[in-house]
Amino acid sequence: MNTNALVIGKFYPPHAGHRHLIETAAAGAGHVYVLVQGSRFETLTAAQRADWLREEFDGANVTIVPVLNDCPEDYASDEIWAAQVENMRWALKAHGVKKIDAVYTSESYGDRLAQAFDAVHVPVDPARETHHISGTMCREDLSGNWCQLVPAARRGLAVRVIVVGAESTGTTTLSEDLRAHYRQQFPAIADVPEYGRYYTYELLEALQGTHADATVEDLVWTATDFGIIANRQTELEQAAAEAAPLVIADTDALATTLWERYYLGDGSYGSYGAQTHLPRRDVYLLTDHNGVDFEDDGWREGEHRRPEMTDWFKETLTDEGHSWILVTGSPERRLATATAVIDAMLNQQNTFTSAAWQNRTVLTVAA
Question: Molecular function terms in GO for this entry (predicted)?
Fold first, then answer.
């Protein structure tokens, strides 16, 4: 077994082929150093890509090192090659690595790179038969190759739209309309329902097991209940991000903190721990109570408090620096407002910039 192994790449973005390369190196070496080379010309930073790989290899014998590298790519130039190698060598030295024993690559330059480090070259699936995927393919068709990305990259790249609002203001209607609108484009788009409602059903069913005539008004809420709801809400959202490039969530952990405040008062903080793990948000859609009739489905009790609750959302979303849009008008008008901004975000999500000299990886089609 080799002591120190080297893997380099742009990982733009990290995909299943990259994971296979690193896993192979980790199985054949005492420790693997992965240099994630990113430039100012690329949309995703080296730090972002490194974070996703760290999640993927957490606890393994792998060190992920983000490297800023704006040097041109020119495999025919000895001078450019020397500049590239020195960039790698000093990135390793900064992490206390003075000797590399093996270089693992799937690229044609592998022999030359290994020679530069006086190491052996271990080719890993150069024909890409195990995973017929490349970063170029992912960038050119992100949606079509979504499941090829490592899970952390999917969670990081997914466009997240969170629909929130007071009781009976159309949040569920808008969430369902949006998912129906985008399901043809993203067949795997997942439902992210309001978990608190299902949790309420479970609590009431348990209570009725001992008190058959119990109603929702008889439930006694605790801070622990809201902590469970908030954490489960985030889990549902994360699973949806792994399934498709677009997440439409009917509420989230942040909203849960406001509902906890609503039911238990300002001194209860059971759901606030989930705030430290709140995923990145793209936009909150806040459904307005004005012009929406209150529908009492037997589980609601706050018609008179809808204006106050709407203001709580406005205040909290503003104070915490989130992008939010108040959606008003008919269901059709609300849907039009939402899709306009979501379409723009999806277009931005699918835009990957690169330096003029960056090579495209074109894989041959298997016979």
Answer: catalytic activity
- Residue 300 structure tokens: 């609601």
- 231 burial level (CB within 10 Å; 0-12, 13-18, 19+): middle
For residues 66 and 240, what is the distance between their CA atoms, to the nearest angstrom?
A: 28
Q: What share of the chain is helix, strand, coil (3-state, %, to 5)?
A: 45, 15, 40
Q: What's the full length of the chain, in residues?
A: 367
For residue 5, list its beta bridge partners. Answer: 32, 102
Domains of the chain, first to last: 2-139 (3.40.50.620), 152-349 (3.40.50.300)
How is residue 2 written in tokens?
Answer: 């080799």
Determine the 3-state secondary structure of 3 from DSSP.
strand
- Per-residue confidence in pLDDT tens, the chain, 367 aa: 789 999 999 999 999 999 999 999 999 999 999 999 999 999 999 999 999 999 999 998 999 999 999 999 888 899 999 999 999 999 999 999 999 999 999 999 999 999 999 999 999 999 999 999 999 999 999 999 999 999 999 999 999 999 999 998 999 999 999 999 999 999 999 999 999 999 999 999 998 999 888 888 888 899 999 999 999 999 999 999 999 999 999 999 999 999 999 999 999 999 999 888 899 999 999 999 988 877 765 555 667 789 999 999 999 999 999 999 999 999 999 999 999 999 999 999 999 999 888 776 655 444 3
Amino acid at 142: L
Q: Are 223 and 270 in contact (CB under 8 A)?
A: yes
The side-by-side arrangement of strands in the sheet containing 246-250 is 246-250, 159-165, 283-287, 324-327
Strands (E), 69-207: 102-105, 120-123, 159-165
Ramachandran quadrant class, 22 (left: phi over 0; alpha: psi -120 to 50; beta: rest)? alpha
Each residue of 282-318: b (16+ CB within 10 Å) or e? bbbbbbbbeebeeeeeeeeeeeeebeebbebbeebbe
Compute the chain's Rg from CA coordinates.
25
